[in-house]
Structure formats: structure tokens, C-alpha cells
What we know:
The complex is a heterodimer. Chain A is mostly helical. Chain A has helices at about 1-5, 20-45, 65-90, 95-110, 135-160, 165-185, 195-200, 205-220, 225-235, 235-240, 245-270, 285-295, 305-325, 330-355. The longest helix of chain A is centred in the last third of the chain and has 29 residues, at about 330-355. Chain B has helices spanning about 45-50, 75-80, 95-100, 120-135, 150-165, 180-195, 205-215, 235-245, and strands spanning about 5-15, 20-30, 35-40, 60-65, 65-70, 80-85, 110, 115-120, 170, 200-205, 215-220, 225-230. The two termini of chain B are about 30 Å apart. The relative contact order of chain B is 0.17. The interface of A and B includes residues 223, 354 and 358 of A.
Amino acid sequence: MSASQHGLGGLKYDPKKRHRPPELNVFFALIFIVLAFEVLGRLIVGDSFLFNTRDRVDTLFNEPRLKIIILQVAIIGIIALGVTQVIISGGIDLSSGSIVGAVAMISTAFAQASVNQYGMENLKPILGEAYLNLPLIVPIVVGLFAGLIAGVINGALIAYAKIPPFIATLGMMLFARGVANWTTKGVPISYLQEDYAKIGAGMTPVFIFIALAVLMHFLLKHTKYGKHTYAIGSNEQAARMSGIEVERLKVLIYAIAGILSAVAAIVMSSKALTGQSGMGLMYELDAIAMAVIGGVSLAGGRGSILGTCIGALIYGVIISGFTFLKLDAFYQEMAKGAIIVGAVVLDQWRARKQAAKS
Amino acid sequence: MSEIILKTEGLTKRYGGVHALEGADFEIRKGEHVAIMGDNGAGKSTFVRQITAVEQRTAGKVWFDGKEVDFKGPLEAREAGIETVFQNLALADALNVPDNLFLGREIFKFKLGPFSILDYKAMREKTLASLEKTGVKIPNVNNAISNMSGGQRQCVAIARTATFHSKLTIMDEPTAALGVQETAQVENIIRTLKEAGEPLILISHNMRQVFDLVDRIVVFRRGKIVANLRKEETSGEDVVAYITGAKTAPEYAENA
Lengths: 358, 256
């Protein structure tokens, strides 16, 4: 009992003054937004957002809609996991969307089959006859490796060449999109093998996302890697003086972000059954938005994978909700912009309030 | 007299043409508390940065714990046993107390390179023990540093030195930004260190504090040591005279 009322040295410790985990606020926001769409839906289009209103089907929730939301969120969410740790480390990654495009092209080029599912012969293999019908591991490894290389280059530019993350990853954003367009001069890649198509089939992307989210959560909260990532985002000078090898850590952080973008690319191209150079366009901003909405501070040091996951759901709900309300796509874009700015304003306000309290 | 823990000879640091530190000969014995005083820009912090290897010295020799040393960086100095509480507190705001205490020296459940798994329980227990030992009062060690007062932050920074049984502690103006009560708290911790026989180099502008806490006062002026005074043999006015340049100790006459 006394332990809960008194801290060390007998100082008064009020458990009520403990800070509510910020993820909880984000979660409340998610519930509020879902309810708002539910109410608006009934008022404006006379339909329920969440629940199944058709009598023929005996499910409580509107499963197709929820599935689409989660599926939409899952693929960009994989990118957001990498972006989250980058932002926590005090950096930013603008290249993730373009890396998706480049890796989608590279992976699918190695995933072509000689005949497609309709039995049509692949007359123009991208890499030549010898590269058709390769084992599934080849496109996956090549794709992940390409993402890794892009991430390592990002990290090296930032850590060793001391280029601001914004500029370094902006360069990579343009470069990787260039690579994506250059591989086939813009021609989409199809005739993908059946095995490759299975990666993104059905709800598999969601399971991949959840598995990666759990892994990244563990890395950030329970390993040296994560602790040091928070430390350099919080006070890089202090981290350096504590003996953390800041440069090597940064390369690792961006490398992992690159690999996660590559995973998203493979899942996405598999789901779409094609590799297209425009894949992942602007996804970097969606991913950053998910993280920021989820309470990841752009100043670094604060945020969590759990927050980003909830942020991703909020993002998905809003996009789906706008479609549901039959609002035009440009309203969606305006709303996205407003939400991102709003989330940052809220974050700043929260930080100021906390600073004033201490 | 007990053993010398740290000794410097002709320690010199130049930034281009600026002679920030010139031929500093200094020594401190085990269990001794020494204050370094001097005006702003006198070379106090520069001196500390050379012995802790935050910067690399231009010339001179350093002995620590009986051996001549040439630390490549602050981590090496720290591993050898020199713990520094820097003026700009080297704490990560977003992390809590155990995280900060063990930053860069975490305890692991399972070693796996950068992905080694942290042992939170062990770190927390050791943190509580060392806070107890130093008499540091912190309401909740799981609170992020950003939610703590300046005094509490300073205490955390100091408690770090006690956690790792350092051989020499250096504090660069530990109370400069603190209120009266917080200053008293930090001073108490310093007394605890004294009782435990831990040597300390204290950089401070606070004359009362220096006379309260240390055995010996070394005065820097324009990058040079100009006086080395035992506390009992000197007075406040005396020290001020050395700091301002009104007086120079005879043995340092060539430094004036």
C-alpha cells in the first residue's frame, strides 16, 4: 500500500497523476470517429456504417466494409511501421512510397511465369526466358534486398554524409521512382506465378501486417535497438555521450524501414497480380500521417507501434467513411490534409501542456 | 596521503589560434573532493572535456588510476571509470529513470547484437538500489525525464555515477539551474559521495557551495591554472582575487 502512495525516499506519489498512455487517447479518437460516421451515415445516406442492414445476410457487422478498411490499412500500415521507428529516431522517410514502386517492379520481374492463369503464353518475359518460373524465394529475396539497399543508402547519407533526413530521403524518393519507371520503361509487369500471387491473396496481407507489427513492437520496446532508437530521437547528444553508436544505429533504422517498404511492395504487387511503376505513389505521406495520427511525435523520441496501428485504423476509417457518405474524392484529400495538420497541432499542444505542468 | 587517481601534465587544448587550455598540471587523490573555479571562458569546461575525451587534447599527458591513458572517446573514459555529469544534462527526455541510468550500458536477458533483449526488472531494481544509496528522491522512476523538475533531473544524472561504481566523478556546474531546495538536495548527494570515499571534481561558481563541499580549490584564469589552495588555508576573498587576476600564487607566477 505504502509503495503506491509513496515513491522513493518517501516523496509523495500520486498514482492519479500518472500519465495516461497517449495510445488510449488515440483509441478514443478512433471510437469517436467511427461513431461519428455511424451517426452521419444514418442521417445523410440512411445506412449504417458499422452494422449489417441487409436482412438476407445474418451477420451483425458490415463485414465487407470492415474487411476493406483493414485490408487497405494493412498494406500502407506495413510501410508505416518502418516510418514510425524512423520518426521516433528523430528522422523522416519520404522515400518509402517510391521504394514500394521500385521493389514492386524488381520483384515481379523475377516472379514471372511462362503461362498465366488463363493458359496464355508469356511472349515477352521482362528478364528473358531464363528468368521465368523461378522458385518463389527468388523474387522475395531480391525484392527485400533491393529495399534493404535503398534503406542503407538513406541511412548512410543521413548518418555519415550528415545530410538532413528530409533531403536524403527526398533524393531517394525521386531516384527510386526513377528506377521503377526505368526497369520496363513504364510497362506493367504481369504473368506472375501462382505462388507469388498467393502472398497477397485474400486477407493474408492483414496477417502479414499483424505479425510485423508485433515484431516491430517487440523490437522497439524490448530490445537495445528500440531503446537506443528512442534515445537518439529524444536527445542525440546524450545518446552519443552514453556511448551509443549513433551512426550505425541510424543506418540500421533506415535499413529496416527499407525492408518493410519492400515487404509492402511484394504484398501489394501480389495482391494486384501485377507490378506497376506507379505503385506506392504518395504512400510515404499516408504512412507518415498514420504515424502522426497515432501519436508519434515528429520531434522524435515519442510514439509507439501500437499508436501507429490505431492511427492507421483511423486513417482507413476516414477514407472508407468518406466513400460511404458518397462524398467526392477531393473532399477526402482535403480531409486527409486537415487531419494530418490537426494531429500535429494536437501533438504540439499536448507537449506544451506537459512542459507547463512540470 | 592516499593514491593519486587522476593526474594531468601540460594538458593543452587549442581551437585554431585560441588557446583554451595551456599547460594544465593537475592531480586528485582517492577520496578527495576538488573544486575547479574560474571566470567564464577560463578553461574549466575545456579542461573537463579533455580528461573525459569529449574532445581530443592538443598536447599533454593524462594518468588515470595509475596508468597513462589516451581515451579515444567519452565512452572509453567512462568505461575506465570517469563518470561525468555534464552542464547540458546528458539525459534522454522521453525515457524514464532506469532507461537513462542504463543508457548505453543496458542489462540484457538475452544477447543478440543490436537486438539484445532488455532485462527491465534487473535495471529497475539496480536503479532503486543506487537511488537509495545516493539519497536521491524521485516520486516515480517510471516517469519520463521530461515530466521531472530540474533538480530531479540533475539527481538522476548524478545517480548514474553512483550506479556504476565510478572511480572519479566530475560535475560541471551541477546546481547552476536549480532552486534553493534542489541545490540542497544535490549538495547532500555530493556529501554522500564524500562519505563513501568517492573522488570528485566539482566545477562551480558558487563560493559558499565550494567551501562547504570540497577539500581543495584549483583556480583557472585565461586557460591556465593560477592557484591550488587547500580550503583551510584560504578564504572567499582570496579565491576571488585569484579568479579576477588580482593575485597569482607564487608557484604559478609564470602562468599569470
